Amino acid sequence: MLEFTGENEMEQSPDELWPYFTDTDVLAACAPGCKEMTLVSPHEIEAVLAVGVGSVKPEFDVDVVVTRAERPESLEMTAVGHAPRNEFETTAKMELRETDDGTTVVWSATADVSGTIASLGGRALKSVTNRLVTKFFADLQETADEGVEATAELEAAPEDVTLETDG
User: How far is the C-alpha of 149 from the C-alpha of 91, rounded, in Å?
Assistant: First the structure.
């Protein structure tokens, strides 16, 4: 199990940022390696992500379920990704905390990774993940700064909705 945590300072208020974190068009544009993202329902997303770790560059078909959405304070998602000889399961959580200068985004994620990509080791995966997360927040901040229109699309799934996993 890999664990990731971090904080990012952003200039807008949580209310102003919420639509950016919950608009699939914005998320697709800001997520490094995202080739495609489709809103299936207000709590389900399907995406195609190409992520490279060293010489391994799988393209994952990803299913995401929003498990918690409390506007504008917190968002939680679970995701399962499948690629040839690779797969992952992850849970990501994010809190938007208002500050005098905008918002502190506190985030954490856990991931189970298996297959060829896992053989590269936790250190390589963490390094790549930290680089991708840094790029995501920088791109999202730039999008918000430019005033790109964003619409809050995501909401929490009913309690009986879960991700189907092959494992």
Answer: 27
* Integer-rounded Cα radius of gyration of the chain: 15
d(CA 116, CA 100): 45
Largest CA distance in the chain: 47
Q: Report strand pairing: 59-70 vs 44-50.
A: antiparallel
Task: Output DSSP code: residue 156.
Answer: P
Residue 154 phi/psi, 5-degree rounding, is -95, 145
pTM: 0.90
The string of pLDDT tens digits covering residues 115-139 is 988 887 778 888 888 899 999 999 9
Distance, CA of 100 to CA of 111 (rounded, Å)? 33
Distance, in Å, from the CA atom of 93 to the CA atom of 77, rounded to the nearest integer, reads 7
